[in-house]
Specification:
Maf protein; seven-stranded mixed beta sheet; elongated
């Protein structure tokens, strides 16, 4: 005997969930996206990440987030594609990833007692329809005052050489920070999950 549920299943086409692709090889963004507990693939975007002449940092972040999503569209025509980029500035200077201890120490010395603005841009591209949602989530970080000895102790313990600003707020670097002003704390780490959850909902892929 066929159950009523089985009859419904036979007569109704069940919608397939949308494929989700993260256009980033960042381990930080991957770990953040995993918090939403949605299956996703990772693709490497092919984008020149240099800023354009005269381009404002916030515009650089937004342009690159959208370009990253667009750059993998041809390989993922049926997917929702996430692109993200972050540009950090302090006192009018862009804060890049330090790469080594000496550069990180110089960066942290310049940030002691100062603030930095992290512009994290997010783009969600519906590859099938071409619809593109985008947003820039601001974050201002106010740093405590710290001396060279504290800087060296921190860098020896955490080695945040792949992190713009040279302090990991999700790790030991939080001890160097006085306060953080942002509507979305995950934006500072690199992928604003509050904004992304809303975008996914609008695109037909609710997180919950």
């Amino acid at each position: 005997m066929i159950s009523s549920l089985e009859i419904l299943r036979q007569n109704k086409v069940m919608p397939h969930p949308r494929r989700l692709v993260l256009a980033s090889t960042s381990s930080y963004r991957k770990a953040l996206l995993e918090r939403l507990r949605l299956p996703f693939d990772v693709a490497s975007p092919l984008v020149d990440e240099r800023a354009l002449g005269g381009e404002a940092p916030i515009d650089t972040a937004l342009r690159l987030a959208m370009l990253k999503a667009q750059s993998v569209r041809a390989q993922h025509r049926d997917a929702l594609i996430i692109g993200s980029d972050q540009v950090a500035i302090s006192a009018g200077r862009v804060l890049g990833k330090p790469g080594d201890h000496a550069t990180a120490a110089r960066q942290l010395r310049s940030l002691s007692g100062q603030s930095a603005d992290f512009h994290t841009a997010l783009a969600l591209l519906d590859a099938a329809s071409g619809n593109l949602q985008s947003e820039v989530v601001p974050c201002r970080v106010h740093f405590r005052r710290f001396d060279d000895a504290r800087i060296d102790r921190y860098l020896a313990k955490e080695k945040p050489f792949d992190c713009a600003g040279s302090a990991k707020a999700e790790g030991l670097g939080i001890a160097l920070i006085e306060r953080i002003e942002t509507p979305d704390p995950t934006a500072l780490i690199g992928l604003p999950l509050i904004a992304l959850s809303a975008m996914l909902e609008r695109a037909g892929l609710p997180v919950i």
